[in-house]
UniProtKB/TrEMBL annotation:
This is TetR/AcrR family transcriptional regulator. Residues 91-217 form the Tetracyclin repressor-like C-terminal domain. It comes from the Bacteria. InterPro entries: Homeodomain-like_sf (IPR009057), Tet_transcr_reg_TetR-rel_C_sf (IPR036271), TetR_C_23 (IPR041673). Gene3D superfamilies: Tetracycline Repressor, domain 2 (1.10.357.10).
Length: 223
């Protein structure tokens, strides 16, 4: 059903966040993506110009949705007074916990958009901007850690760590998508074990957590 136009005299035009909300609702209600910007705009009380003011295409809009997921997660973390005092391990844990809380709040949309026919998780263009943001976050963490080291010999590789954080996110995203546990508690365990494993490897500490993590993955796979 076509909605009342948002461009009638005296009515406020939709902003970027409103268009995103309309789009997410559309694909869930219709179980398909819109065929054209013209039809999508007309059916939802806006003009093409309203849409193109913020997004160049539906692909651009989909990327922006993932940007919002990331930005909202960071905003929530930074509201915490304790976050700034956390060690890098706790900061990364907090990031993943918060990010997946945001994704869980939008789970139906995320599952739909990541399971569209022909899509492959690692190659999806809609995650391109998110990859940059996640890698930059990881790079920032390692830069902070390196600044506290007294010798360059003990500094950690920024490129390897930041790429590792992205790969870790993809792993956790796939795990979360397949997670059938109540309140996705298995994903919380995977987050904790994977983050501890990464930091243990980088810190050259005993690898008990690596074994523990491997056992956890094997158990989840066999259940």
């Amino acid at each position: 059903m076509a909605k009342k136009t948002a461009n009638s005299k005296g009515e406020k035009k939709p902003g970027a966040d409103e268009i995103i909300a309309i789009y997410m609702d559309y694909v869930l209600e219709h179980e398909k993506t819109p065929r054209s910007v013209y039809k999508f705009a007309k059916d939802n009380g806006m003009t093409e110009q309203d849409f193109y003011k913020y997004f160049g295409s539906f692909e651009g809009l989909r990327k922006a949705i993932w940007d919002r997921f990331f930005d909202n997660s960071v905003a929530v973390m930074e509201k915490s007074k304790e976050y700034a005092s956390f060690e890098n391990r706790e900061k990364l844990l907090t990031f993943f916990y918060t990010m997946f809380e945001v994704l869980t709040a939008n789970r139906s949309y995320v599952l739909y958009t990541l399971n569209e026919p022909g899509q492959q998780l690692k190659g999806m263009t809609q995650l391109k901007n998110l990859r940059k943001k996640v890698k930059n976050y990881g790079k920032m963490l390692i830069q902070d850690g390196n600044s506290e080291k007294s010798m360059k010999l003990f500094e950690q590789n920024e490129m390897i760590f930041s790429e590792g954080v992205w790969v870790q996110f993809l792993f956790l995203l796939k795990f979360w998508m397949d997670d059938n546990s109540p309140e996705f508690e298995s994903t919380d365990v995977a987050i904790e074990k994977s983050v501890n494993t990464v930091f243990d490897l980088f810190d050259n500490t005993p690898l008990e957590r690596v074994v523990d993590f491997g056992k956890f993955l094997w158990k989840e796979r066999m259940v």
